[in-house]
What does this fold into?
Amino acid sequence: MRALVLGGAGFIGLHLVRRLVADGHTVTVVDDFSRGRDDAELARVCADPAVEVVTGDLTRAATWASLPRHWDQVYLLAAVVGVRNVEADPARVVRINALVALHLMDWIDAADRVFFSSTSEVYAGAVDAGVAAVPTGEDVPAMVADVTAPRFAYATSKLLGEAAVLHGSRAVGAHAVVGRFHNVYGPRMGTDHVVPEMSLRALRGEDPFRVPGADQYRAFCYVDDAVEAVVRLMATPDAAGRIVHIGDDTEQTNIADLAKLVLRTAGSHASLRPEPAPAGSVHRRCPDLGRLRRLTGYQPAVALEEGVGRTFAWYRDHGRPTVAEGPIPPGAPDRTEGQVPAWR
It folds into this structure.
């Protein structure tokens, strides 16, 4: 098949490109590479003869007009993400993420099968308000507690994207599915996520080891499992027009226990220093994957200990960059898309 991966230089994007090529498909990657220069892993993937690379700004209509049509599969993973990006410039997050989704809505036609990447952040307000149970299904109200708060800019932009892609595809008769990623982690995702961020501080030998939100719970999903879910959804006709949670519901993990696992992986005997959770972070997050399982038969395959070990090893082997501004809180928006690490 011919697949188009928009944002294919990003975290999940590059893992997805690898998987599609391994499955025998030809892939075209479109990205602005704003943070993807001098990336050896990206260069190796893009050097594969099955991969074509296009540099383009997906906020511009001209970029979309220049793209060929009638792909077997289209994946939209391009977005501005990461808690520091969101809090530093929420207007940029809304503008870029909304424009990319709206251009996709205008661009798709009846022949397309489209995947749109979204986030569990779109219903975080419902969990905070006690309206949504945990584990959380797709049918809970999507709530933004405070539209003026910078941290909700990402959720707002993704909620708009969900509506644009689902209504746009329905209007033209295309197959589109929205995948809401839940705390996806793994190698090459930058530092704006609790697992690599903890790994880097453990490598620096931090002691005492700071743990914001130590009493909170998350269900972390290794990136290979997330990619497996995406591939299965795109091969499932009954997924068309659906919002489907993507994650791992088999291990709800206390953040303090996660810190202990990271330190154990690093061979560190540092003591933990629990710190208050940041304002606005949910106490517990875990997806209900019943819909994903019914549609695709998906089952997570990478246990947390194994995934943390792989992730830790990648950051150990790729240097020990400085982690700016202290630890990333577990309640921060997932860094599940976007570009390659800023420190690369």
